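Summary: Need help interpreting a holo structure output

Steps to reproduce:
1. Submit the protein chain below together with the SMILES for adenosine-5'-triphosphate.
2. Request a joint structure prediction with the ligand placed.
3. Inspect the structure token block that comes back.

Expected: a single structure record containing both the chain and the bound molecule.
Actual: see attached output.

Input attached:
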Amino acid sequence: MRSTVSLPSETRSSELIRLGCVCLAALGLVGIGPLCLGEYSVDILIRSFLFGAVAVTLDILWGYTGILSFGQSAFFAIGAYAGGLIFTHLGLTPLDAILAVGIGLIVASLLGALVGWLAFGYGVSDLYVSVATLVLCVVVVRILYAGGTFTGSSSGLSGFTTFDLSMPVWFALTGSFLVIVAALGWLLVHSDAGTLFVSIRENEQRARYFGLATGRIKIALFAAAAAIAALAGFGYASYTDVVAPDLANFKFGTAIVIWVALGGRATLLGPAIAAVLIDFISAYLSGSLPFIWELLVGVVFIAVIVVMPQGLGPGLARGVRSMLPLRSVAPSSAAQLSIASQPVITAQSDHGPSAIAVTALSRHYGSLRVLDDISFTAQAGELVSLVGPNGAGKTTLIRCISDGTERSGGDVAILGCSIGRLTPEYCARLGLGRKFQTPTVFEALTVAQSLRIARARIDPPSLWRRADTINLPQAALQVVQATGLAEQLANPVRSLSHGGKQALELAMVLAAEPRVLLLDEPTAGLTKAERRLIGGILVDLVARHRLCILLIEHDLDFVRQISSRIIVLHQGRIVLDGDVATVVGSELVRTIYAGEPQAIGAMT
Ligand SMILES: Nc1ncnc2c1ncn2[C@@H]1O[C@H](COP(=O)(O)OP(=O)(O)OP(=O)(O)O)[C@@H](O)[C@H]1O
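--- attached output ---
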């Protein structure tokens, strides 16, 4: 059975109305700006608006998705040089202009995809992304220097013929560009796809274990951000008719990072405003205080980071909210649960391939052999408990079953398919669900958003819409309802208790509709009643839906009540594999647990 969790939908429409009002107000300001401002201010702001748009792209990358890039300057320069080079060497026909925009967009997005592919390779730390983008800036600057008369080398290109537009028109064009980029960015980050970006920032590993190809998502996002930065760069070259290698410099790249940090990460509007204001003020200061203006900007940056580590945006937003009687977002209690009768977890045949088949599996860290010659199978309709003393290798075994890159030797097959060297997201796509030992959740998301992310592979998220319902399988809904999560759908996950997070992770794993479940101590931290309930749900999943569950538990009483079979692991080897009565009555198990009297008590 699949159930539908309905969420308050009026929130989205009121948000869209507010966005429309803000955009109209911003466009109004852009319209009247040249009438109120002096020529110098208009000149600076035309440039600042373009920088503001680039800051928005970096905020989506860094603030929302956790990708700290210093390379937006390089993409900005690529767009600028595409314009500069075409206008210098070819001319300014409409075809030339289209060619320049096209080349800028294509080169920037392809290079973005390439750098993303290199930077987001698995096993690579987040720091590598920042280093890779710094290197990108250096490489682009060196290429521009090496271009000789073609790129103008260190002097760049200037004085090329460009669009003959008045300052008010440029002001309207670049201002509207900023408003459009910010509005589209807002729609994106407030859509289900935006929630997916935040889930990657919060806990990429968890997202991957839901079968989400986070590397590909980040590459696509990085390439799109590169393209928009290039478009802004093209606008810059077209307006100023000057391009220089400094545009690609990591100094400019770092300035964009500072704008975002000052404006407030993951606020979108904050970085846009900060970029415009700082560039505008800097232009004035650099004229009147040529030797110390950079120092002043640095001091302000440090002061803001110390006083408001989250930047100016969130503080300003709080101030505005406290002054204006804005309607608050509908509370979680407004969410309704309804059930649609539709079979989702299909009953599995007992005659197919084994749900889990592990053959001669080994895992060693250097000379330390943690797992040795592990072989067993588990069928659909079996609840196999994996027990053993601390350090026996239970978690390592689950890791090797759910991630093809983990094991040192042997083979693992899920539902008849060998996982080979598949990474967790592709193992998950074979029908595998994994719950981690400690609650592994998305702290900054709400309970409802977390459940939606767990379903993202099955119900792909929209790039601009936020769904007002979540389809959940019956088992996930049962966990949500029985553990009180249903009343906390709009609450942030970080506000949940340890037990609440445990229950949420289990509900998320079940929401992804796995056919093979790997559960590492799923009831740790739950109350006795909740444990009973979870036990009942697991038994039901196995009995009615013929799922296969491999469960690690230290509470052997719990194990005895729900298991159809028990595997005992000791010092990285399987020492016993049998039904509950055989294992409980085993002298060998008593000996293994000799140091743990409580466990023996529970087994007997
Ligand atoms: N990345 C690693 N590098 C080195 N040794 C590791 C690594 N991961 C696990 N080990 C070692 O492997 C052994 C088994 O660890 P594992 O966590 O699988 O045991 P466990 O049976 O799950 O224990 P527990 O019940 O306490 O969770 C331990 O001795 C541990 O120190």
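--- end attachment ---

Reviewer comment: Residues 12-312 form a domain with the ABC transporter involved in vitamin B12 uptake, BtuC fold (CATH 1.10.3470). The chain is about 55% helix and 15% strand.
Status: needs-info
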